[in-house]
Batch of 3 targets.
Target 1
Amino acid sequence: MDRDTFRPGPLARVELTPENELVFVRELRHPPEKVWTALTDPDQLAGWAPFLTDRDLGRTGDAVLSTVDGDQSYPAPARVLRADRPHLLEYTWGDDRLRWELTANGDGTTLTLRHRVGGPDLAAMTAAGWHLCLDVAARLLDGDPVGPIRGAEAKDFGWAELRDAYAERLDRD
């Protein structure tokens, strides 16, 4: 599939906890070890994540994650708090805290992202962004990369519709 025909897949399982933690669950067709590499290796992250990293995220310690929007890059401090290969990756990114849990599910992986957001009004926007990023990551893992979809460009790939759909889903919970 080429980038011009890329469209987001079905909505993920999602909920927002009272602590403003967005819980986003996706099923991937690849084993945890392969998913782990996509979450930690700078070259793989560059192919799907909303940021670029200055180092491998598979070990604890300080890092810099730079949000990318077109030709602009916005570095933010990060700290990898836990890196239990290939099951748990937890780090801060600016004021946010992300926890990636990988659970083997047959030949695939259940990926659970817990992303503490600044408030409930940010949950649907955050879910829409991760939805697109993880759809792109799934393509990368499948060997059919479409390239990263970041920043304002996400609007060309259904971000607003995803945001509205996640807002509706989160309001029902």
Target 2
Amino acid sequence: MKTIITTAKAPAPIGPYNQAVLSGNTLYTSGQIAINPESGALVLDDITSETTQVMHNILAILEAAGMTFNHVVKSSIFISNMDDFAEINNVYGSFFNDEIAPARETVQVARLPKNVNVEISVIAVK
């Protein structure tokens, strides 16, 4: 059994997928990019602002499922330039307590949707 999780506080899907799916106690989010859900505009001023918007989008989805970043057990980060890793990591890390930080991989990719610089997805367990 699965439950579709949606919220207006995160960007609407731009394809045939959902913001997140809850299966049992496990939440699987779709990759989030830096779309401001209120304006629909991309936040690409700098990598810090972009990553912050991504993390706020993820938080909105987690909250819609009754969860927080404390529930995240795994995350995947896709970046277009590994030179941005330190700044992305700094913003990402500010949303987690080091003692309960999730497992993670960070991968440089050739291209991301809408030519953004970072996309992040998470798996969380209640």
Target 3
Amino acid sequence: MPLPLIIDTDPGVDDAFAIAVAALSEDVDLLGITTVFGNVPLEATTLNARRVLALCGRADVPVAAGAARPLVHAQLRRASHVHGPDGLSGRSATLPEPHRAVEPGGAVRLLVSLLEAAEEPVTIAPIGPLTNIALLLAAHPQVREKIGRIVIMGGGLAGGNSTGAAEFNIWSDPEAARRVLVEETVPCVLVPMDLTYRCAVDSAWLGELAASGPVGAALAALTPDYRAHYRTALGWDGIVLHDAVAVAEAIRPGILRTERYPVEVECSLGPARGATLVDRRRQALRADAEGDVVPGRVEIAVDTDLDGLRAFILERLARS
């Protein structure tokens, strides 16, 4: 049976790759896509998601627009310096125009309707700020039993990319991230930037993608601004497909090796705001104020077969 999957996203170049991986996978039942503010404003992320689906020939997949801002404090900075002014290196308009209108009622309404209609547990892959997912779980707790697991791209174990402490998706709405990762009971997998950076692809990989067919060529053409940023960030010519790594794990559980740990999210307004605090001490040393051992709840992705992961993503994107 195909895997029932919903993607929550803020496209974003790596989000576009992640959407395409799912949209082109025959073993995935892509139930819907919800959008959120993040790399660029909500209007742009929603249009980008619809255009990527049009590129993949997936007019059957509904798209609903979600949160335009964080739960509590305003977003301090977008990521247009990484993804370009429209989120896709200034090349969003090179993609096909969508034929399907945005779903009425918003992201949470679509999420609830898709989950309530599902006959088996649904995987949700949030690859942007976690605002929509926090709102869903807070307002509609009855849908928890319909969620198989939530596979999240976000966080950094050794630091961040938006600040020295915080990764962009978590930093954009720490209160929402804390709601999902700390306060909820739904099984979560967190795919941090420590691992996604190790999965970076080089110019040869991008060349193979561009030569694979019209979808691959169109996706590769979205990368110039993103590639320029990562040429500086990596020190060599390549890009980091953060979100596609998380969606690969959503599609093929176990493609990433995980370890279970307790997680906290820093929500203060100080320099550590948005930091993902993963307690990697031995379990016997993890005690609360009463001396009780604190169990790990979140599966943290720590390793993978790097070449195998890159080949998996390329093979899915070449299926067009």
